[in-house]
Amino acid sequence: MNYEEISFENALQTSGEIGSIIEAKYPIIAVDGLPNIRQHELVVCETGDIGEVFELNKTKIHVALFSNEHPQIGTRVTRLNTQLTILIHEGYFNSVYDPLGRIMLGKKIKPTTIVERNIFQSENSLKNFRSIKQQCITGVNIVDMVVPLGKGQRQLLIGDRKTGKRPLALQIASSAAAQGMYIIYALIGQKANDIHNVYTELQKMNAGQNASIIASTAADSPMMIYLTPYTAMAVAESLQQRGHDVLVIFDDLSTHGQVYRELSLLSGRFPGRESYPGDIFYIHANLLERAGNFLTKEGKEASITALPIIHTSEGEIASYITTNSIGMTDGHLYFDKELYLQGIRPPVHMGLSVTRAGKQTQSQLLREINTTVISFYGQYNRLQNYSRFGGEMSQQVKDTLFEGELMTKFFTWHSNSPVNLHIETIIFGLIWGGYFKKENINAMYTARKNLTYMYSESKGKAFIDTLSQATSLTMLLEEIKRVEDIVVKICGLKK
């Protein structure tokens, strides 16, 4: 539906029903009349303002307006006899659109293929669900090795504000685009400057041609902010049903939950825990459960991978929206503020981060590395706490602390610099095999640089791929030992 062409007179002539505004609590208006109105149906005021039926009761109809205008009591209202739909077309890519499909930023093109979709209804049924089989490589080694992401997974990014969640989401988007996936980035009630920055970053990462941004600003109507993630998911489903793998990022669902609480309280719904309405769990679960790996009509599997972002306050993960989101996703990355302040990027806390679907997509070698790293960090953290007391330490404890320091540097991600998983696997083998010495801790960076250069050549790529395809960590160490002279020379190490 083209919302710019809606006319009150035409709608009134079609529906034959008229009502009037009897109460106004922006953005909610109460309407009397319209006896055949339905839940979620659209209405139009004689002022041209459009809204959606948000709440129906015996005495009046609560409508949430899409605009920032404030219609007066007594203003006439009529039905549109339709629910909210958007027109999806190829112009969405490399551009920024609002939840109603109106362009905000980018080049407007004349579409050749248009699909109309109801943003609240999913066309994927339960019988089309398939298990998650493929790993979505992110270019961030701590994610790919320790908390892996599968195509079709719902992985929560959770932590305090300003701890690097958005930069990591953008990096995952860039790597996903390089793998041929489509990116749908939902910016929910964000600053106009942030929307422009995300658009610019995707262009810099060469992901813009495969990316669509659905955005609402903090100055928009709360209803427009509420609709943003649903429009983004509708665009993602349209692509998935055509056989494409899609990554959709919701930035952020904390703002979405707060806006829904505002709309619910203004419409008179009974407040529950933390003043959120009782159906807030259903609202977010219904949205996120539309992600997954599905069988299309053509018999091909295609996925929607969802990355919802949730902000915590002072690391509190027991708040209502946070616990809801953890319960309805397949895992989460916890961004620790303490680690962030220590300069660790991304500040992902291994002990508090979980993946319930991604690990099954890893190779046997990566699963073994995963288990080894988590076990090692448990020991390293205990020894680190012990060392703060200043007691006498054995050489074994000192070696473990050095390996932990080296491992932390290994997992530190430099923004906008994706790493190659094959190369990172070999470097991990060098760390675990004790090839890096304390007197030259920066040798790890030299090794990464040299291996990256070598990977750009066909012979070097074949050599690195062969090493990284070992079926176990023991076999990887044996393979490195077998070609030790070559590896030492390439990485600039000393025996």
Class per helix and strand makeup:
alpha/beta
Mean pLDDT: 90
Low-confidence stretches: none
Distance between the termini: 69 Å
Percentage of residues in helical conformation: 25-40%
Number of DSSP strand runs: 19
CATH third-level topology of the largest domain: Rossmann fold
- Biggest beta sheet attributes: 11 strands, mixed
CATH architecture of the largest domain: 3-Layer(aba) Sandwich
Count of DSSP H/I helices:
16
The number of distinct structural domains comes to: 3
Give the tags:
495 residues; alpha/beta; Elongation Factor Tu (Ef-tu), domain 3; Rossmann fold; 3 domains; eleven-stranded mixed beta sheet; six-stranded antiparallel beta barrel; elongated
Could you please describe the fold and organization of this structure?
By secondary structure, this protein is of the alpha/beta class. It is built from 16 helices and 19 strands. The protein has three domains: about 80 residues, Beta Barrel (Elongation Factor Tu (Ef-tu), domain 3); about 280 residues, P-loop containing nucleotide triphosphate hydrolases (Rossmann fold, 3-Layer(aba) Sandwich), CATH 3.40.50.300; about 130 residues. Helices cover about 40% and strands about 20% of the residues. Strands 8, 9, 11, 12, 13, 14, 15, 16, 17, 18 and 19 form an eleven-stranded mixed β-sheet that branches. A six-stranded antiparallel beta barrel has the order 1-2-5-4-3-6. It has a two-stranded antiparallel ribbon with strand order 7-10. The N and C termini lie far apart (about 70 Å).
